[in-house]
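Per-record layout

source: Dyadobacter beijingensis
name: Por secretion system C-terminal sorting domain-containing protein
length: 124
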Amino acid sequence: MKDAIGNWHVSSSISIGQFSSQREGAPIEESQTELPGFELNAYPNPYATSFTIAFDVPEENSHVRLDIVNSQGTVLKTVVENPHAKGKWRYEVKELPDNVTEVLYCRLKVNESYTIRKLVHLNR
């Protein structure tokens, strides 16, 4: 209940009840595995000036988009955006803006699936 100044107070005499959406002991799925054949690696990590991104494309003629994103979600560079054949692919990223933050993210989209890797930039 609210008091005169708008603060909420709960006492033992007030029954709040339980909603059907409040489940006790709901299972939590902690799945860090990627889709089979959907793999993303970035090395060296941490990096100084450039890094290489390697990934697998599981299906023929898959649409691939590979972005370098900062912690605010702004795309700094789109490395590739076009159809790819099934197999292993590798791209070297050399030219990034001068104002790169310490942590970047490599975001890979293959068809409708996403995966992300964290990249650490060494400032000298």
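summary: The beta strands are 40-43, 51-57, 62-70, 75-84, 87-93, 103-110, 113-120. Residues 68 and 74 are 9 Å apart (CA to CA).
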